[in-house]
Amino acid sequence: MIRHLFNPKFIALLLIYASLMNAHSETVLIKNIQGYSHNGRQLIKLQSLAFDSHSGRILNHNNEQQFDRIIDGNNQILLSGLHDAHGHVLNYGLSQTQVQLQGIEDFTQVQQTIKQSLKKHHSGEWLLGRGWNQALWPEKDFPSREDLDALSIEQPPIWLTRIDGHAGWGNSAALKAAGITRELAKDNDLILKDNSGEPTGVFIDNAMELVTRHIPAISQQSQHQALQKAFADLAAVGLTYVHDAGISANNHALYQNMAETGQMPIRIYAMLASQTPDFEQLLKQGQVNIANRYQLRSVKMMVDGALGSYGALLHEPYSDKAETHGAYVQDLATLKAKLKPTVAAGFQAAIHAIGDRGNTEVIDLLAQPTAFSNVLRHRIEHAQIMRPTDIKRLADNHIIASMQPTHATSDKNMAEDRIGPDRMAGAYAWKTALNNQVHLAFGSDFPVELINPFFGIHAAVTRQDRENQPVGGWYPEESLSIEEAFKAFTIGAAYAANDEQNNGSLEAGKYADFIIIDQDIFSIDPKDIWRTQVLETWVNGKQIYHKN
């Protein structure tokens, strides 16, 4: 055996192998930077960052001589890669090819935008879009199918999702294609009706499926292209890690394939939609982690709807619609039935709850000893309107609050109308949550909101929109410091994915996910945070985006 070790051919093979290994591995030092990271306890400032480009891991370093490549950072600002703890990646990608109605405050302009899309639309196919918000229009009334029917004589079925994804608006052709009749709508309170009992064309939460199940399935190729578009856009705004809040079995298969074939430039932490038909079968297959690029270890559930469409579940009636308290999307019996196999499989539960009653009931559920919240780190998605006593219960029961700062600045034009001033004490209450030692994870809920995380950091710090209104901030007592907001968009979100040992901060042994930006968000006037531009995005020690 020893004789073989000194065989010239064997030695040559060793040298070739070593050279191949070195060709694939390169140690890199970026020096002369102003770097920021948060380790969960405090903000850390960095002057340099070292990593191995093969493993993608951050290295400890003492001197420049030990590195294969040295990059001069030219005193640029470098941050830990930003995380979005609640987005909808495929929906975002698909929405980029649909009618965009987000932010339009003039209803006539809404109609004109749809009319222009009809002119370019392929005859016979459904026209799809999203983003309308009746709270922005002067009359604040829900639209009707007649508003769409009036746009042209011959129309394809039209289906337009509200900004929050919790209501849909269809024309008469869509209702006909879905078989929606006066008789069918009669006893369904989630189908809006006019004074004569005819369906208006607006469907809330669970009623939306009566129409959407008739929309032709989107091809695998189109879904693949939509995800590629989404990944590129997310990287361009500095997002290196996204929690996808509710995927189907089909989405899961597509994600797996893209991760395994190197087509996933950012990291995805997926939540399996509990409504998907193969829900329990997928749970039995166990958790998925493909090279820390794609993970499936969470289940998305939904107790209620959204505030803007009167679907959020409240203890007391809506202030501006006294006949309703909101509605269940999944009632408590359903949630209990879904939670049991989720916990048995070791998956985290991520439960959508917006209204105060919805939040109370979800906390009651997750506080049960059999939920094992202290181990599985269950979370409430949105935690938007809460009784102050329930906020403290989040921390007491190890439940994470996954919140979206731009929801506050978008909802400020209608939230107080919906719930009145008294209930605002527990609404969008990030600072109160932190003061009660609640773990915060921040995101955007894109495409409900825009994908840019700097918009979210700005909203968290200023409680203002990008016009810096209202002056002084909306309920400014709930404002966070820039450090607190940054933490929730980095290590706080990584904690919510039970992945802070690998991601969320720039510490030795973790992945080298970072961004370079054009201004120091920790020293500028907070009103300008939203203007921040991303110059470079790196994931796993490799550059995936560079601003032209």
- Given this structure, which CATH class of the domain at 91-212 is correct? Alpha Beta
Strand content is: 15-25%
Structural class: alpha/beta
Summarize model confidence as the mean pLDDT.
94
Total beta-strand segments: 21
**Architecture (CATH level 2) name of the domain at 91-212:** Roll
Q: Distance between the terminal alpha carbons, to the nearest Å?
A: 57 Å
- Biggest sheet, open or closed, and with what strands and sense? 9 strands, mixed
Number of helices: 21
Question: What low-confidence regions span 5 or more consecutive residues with pLDDT below 50?
Answer: 1-6, 8-23
Q: What is the fold-level CATH name, i.e. the topology of the domain at 91-212?
A: Diaminopimelate Epimerase, Chain A, domain 1
Which term fits the overall shape? Answer: globular
Q: What's the alpha carbon Rg, rounded to whole Å? A: 25 Å
Determine the fraction of residues in helical runs and give it as a percent range: 25-40%
Walk me through the topology.
Elements lengths: L1 H4 L2 H17 L2 E12 L4 E10 L16 E12 L1 E6 L1 H7 L3 E2 L6 H14 L6 E6 L12 H5 L8 E5 L4 E4 L1 H6 L4 H4 L5 E3 L5 E6 L4 H4 L7 H17 L2 E9 L1 H12 L6 E7 L5 H6 L3 E3 L3 E9 L29 H13 L3 E6 L2 H11 L6 H4 L2 E4 L5 H9 L3 E4 L1 H7 L3 H9 L6 H6 L4 E3 L10 H10 L19 H7 L2 H6 L17 E4 L16 E6 L2 E5 L2
Parallel strand pairs: 1-3, 4-11, 5-6, 6-7, 11-12, 12-14, 14-15, 15-16, 16-17, 17-18
Antiparallel strand pairs: 1-2, 3-19, 7-8, 8-10, 9-10, 13-14, 19-20, 20-21
Helix pairs in contact: 3-9, 16-19
